[in-house]
Amino acid sequence: MEASVPGRARRGRRRTRAAGSPLSRAAVLLFLSAFLVRVTASVGYLVRLPRSFRLTKDSVKIVGSTNFPVKVYVMLHQKSPHVLCVTQRLRNAELIDPSFQWHGPKGKVISENSTTQITSTGSLVFQNFQERMSGIYTCSLEYKPTVEETVKRLHLKYIIYAYREPHYYYQFTARYHAPPCNSIYNISFEKKLLQILSKLVLDLSCEISLLKSECHHVKMQKAGLQNELFFTFSVAQEHLLKRPFFSTLNCLSTLVEVSSLDTGKGPKPCTDHNCESSRRLAKAKNLIERFFNQQVEALGRRAEPLPEIYYIEGTLQMVWINRCFPGYGMNDMQHPKCPECCVICSPGSFNPRDGIHCLQCNNSLVYGAKACS
């Protein structure tokens, strides 16, 4: 039976020896602080770019169809692809005296302004696309195939959706052996840990926020009843900084959030916001993983006894979480060309909070509804 839980049993024996440790609580905090020095900025990292809409040569210019409405996806506040007022068959054909007219979601004729452009060849292009621009667009094309032939007319329909990248984050959990749950030194340890993590990701413009802290008694095989702190922390993008989290100390987990902070100060090496955020989040993730791994390495080199508070090897876990903003949702069935985009909710649906999907609502008559009304 002992062979089935060797790690836990070994930790239990370590804790038993640590009970009589003469080390002071201050020494424990200094021991933890030492790990910050060992984590260097040269750690390699995986660039995790947004996994949603992938532009191709064909998606830069989008053609219509006489058989069905063509769906077009435009990132919020960005420039749209060129929406052509022709079909694939007519795209490279010679058209005599062509004329184009675009109608917007409310049936109004579209004219050029600061955010909308109609090119000389009839292409519709949006600058700084807004939520309110989402909807059904139609284009009327009149042309002659040859000079001698009569005028032909064509009506094409497009459904243009605003979309956003999901606000995604890494969520970690880790456990520490601890003194009794009612000990004030647990609080001191948490504060020190937060300071260290904050310094660890400081150069990445990230912020550490304590969310909650709990302590539990854990029965260990051949080691009796032990006290453990359960830490959970996340590396998140900047739009999660203002989320309402809570911080309470009870006698199972400390929730910490590592959030990308764009203060607008200093140089920004990547002009693409999503690109830079992904790099910073990925690097913060790797720095945190290395921080905990080096605690294990330091404990392995340490002579007995162990400190009273120490990281329990193998307890660090990570999950990748996606969320959409209110009024947006993912739907790979409805939007197969943009399966991991947070696409604006269509009429008849809504998303009231940062869930993943738009919910059905027959009373919703607008794009981007945040309530069923």
From TrEMBL:
Keyword line: Cytoplasmic vesicle, Glycoprotein, Secreted
Record-annotated Ig-like domain positions: 50-152
Subcellular location(s) per record: Cytoplasmic vesicle, Secretory vesicle, Acrosome; Secreted
Presence of the UniProt keyword Glycoprotein in the record: yes
Gene3D superfamilies linked to this entry: Immunoglobulins
Entries under Pfam families matching the protein: EGF_Sp38_C (PF20626), Sp38 (PF07354)
BP terms from Gene Ontology: acrosome assembly; binding of sperm to zona pellucida
Location, primary (coarse class): cytoplasm
Annotated GO CC locations: acrosomal vesicle; extracellular region; zona pellucida receptor complex
Secreted as UniProt keyword: yes
Domain of life (superkingdom): Eukaryota
Similarity field: Belongs to the zona pellucida-binding protein Sp38 family.
Name of this chain's protein: Zona pellucida-binding protein 1 isoform X2
Species of origin: Sapajus apella
